[in-house]
From TrEMBL:
Pfam families: LMWPc (PF01451). The keyword Hydrolase applies. This is protein-tyrosine-phosphatase. GO terms for molecular function: protein tyrosine phosphatase activity. Its EC number is 3.1.3.48. SUPFAM superfamilies: Phosphotyrosine protein phosphatases I.
Amino acid sequence: MPKRVLIVCVGNICRSPTAEAILRHRLREQPDNVVESAGLAALRGMPIDPQAEQVLAAHGLSAGTHVARQISPALIEGADLVLAMERRHLEALRVLAPKAVGKIFMLGKWQRNIDIPDPYGRGAAAFKKVYPMIDAAVEAWLPRIYTHA
């Protein structure tokens, strides 16, 4: 079972930190699991987008301490499971770390490999629409991540 999960999007300020916060919350009783996120073209050093944080807060969660960071081959190789938001992200990740192909998947894999659209710059409604998609995708991964004692 995975112990270190890495979630990837483009800027690492909307989707991936949202998924990170949701998954970290769901795995809170599993302190040996580590959940992280990064971006393919990260807005390095930036906090989570305020609209993404508002949607998280509406669900009792927060990523207020999040700081965007750039993906690297070392981050990919150090993870047990890498989850991407879109199909095009899969290819970029596989190019960065070709030996890690077997642990790189779509976050929406269990929903027929759906792409989770980027809400950045599209207003509050886009963030509200994406949240349940991310939440459902995280929920579908739980049985494959959660380690039973």
